[in-house]
Predict the 3D structure of the following.
Amino acid sequence: MKENKPDWAALRREFPTLQNWVYLDVARKTLPPRAAEWAMQEYCRDVYENAGADAWSGENVEETRKLMAQLLGAKPAELAFMKNTTEGLNIAAHAFELRPGDNVVLTDMEHVNNVWIWRHWEAKGVEVRFARNRNGRLTLDTFLEQMDKHTRVVSCAYVTYGNGYRVDLPALGGICRERDIRLVVDGVQAAGILAAPLSDLGADMIAIGGHKGLLGLTGTGLLYCRHELIRNLKTPFIRPLSIVGAAENKQFDHVHDAHRLEGGNPSFLGLRVMRRCAEMLTAIGIANIEQRVRELSSAFLRMVHAAGLKTQTPEEWEERAHIVNLIVPDAKGMQARLQAQRIAVNVKDNALRVSMSFFNNEEDLDKAMGAIKRELGAEAALVS
């Protein structure tokens, strides 16, 4: 397969679910490719035949870390394995020394998991503020309105879970760096979809679940931490460097990189699946994936406008990714009726959410839009 021209039809066949479903709910969970099945078979076979010599290998964990760093645009030492996005964000929410009078700026478009993890600071005299969206957009001005000399942390999604708005992280990160403010990012909706390297986004910490664009299993994920910060972060998993004597004791060499944020055994099975799927994504090329998702999502937006439907998803690619939402009556009922037709979408913030990946095609979009229009027509007929 040539990296600059993937065979999308052949790649689609690597996802058996698509033989029976129109699956447009990638923003919830990915479909597993055959590579995930093979990885699980490899794991079980090694446990059965070799008592887990390869399946439980620490060397394989480190090879996976190197591959994920290459795929995502980071240094291996900047990546810690997590069980999900929330675990990574929770570590970040306890990682910095905040004092009474300080404030943390979130947004009013965050997933709830990037809100409650910061609330514990309020009992310690730290204010939690919210940048307010304007017509579904979180421009730099909306952040600056809430930031002042007491702001210590800004935390937001790279791509929001509802209407799919993409925050201009490099610009926001530049402002935060100038003011010595830490930028913590929920990156789960962007990873495996957008090609920008993590190291170019201007963030200090980025939490990423593995079960969406990275094609992995639930229970696996990553936390990126900018290398310059790693030694100074607080973490509940190990004691401070001064206590463990890490500078003199080779046993604790790992605490000088993001590995210090990991606790206990990793998900060896989950990381094997993550590695095999990352190999697949690397072979395709993230830039190719982004271009394909751009083509598909732009095509669906054109269908939305042609049908006279309302969306809160921005038109410009630089402000969106793989998510398009639709404002329809009784979105939950619509979702259920589409599900009965083997069309998987979701509902977020009272809107129908359609989300796609490179394994989708134009026929999926046509079928989904055709079903949506039929359902809306049936509702209109009932009302009249």
User: Anything to note?
Assistant: The chain has two domains: 8-31+286-383, 37-281. The domain at 37-281 is CATH 3.40.640.10 (Aspartate Aminotransferase; domain 2). The first strand starts at residue 22 and ends at 23.
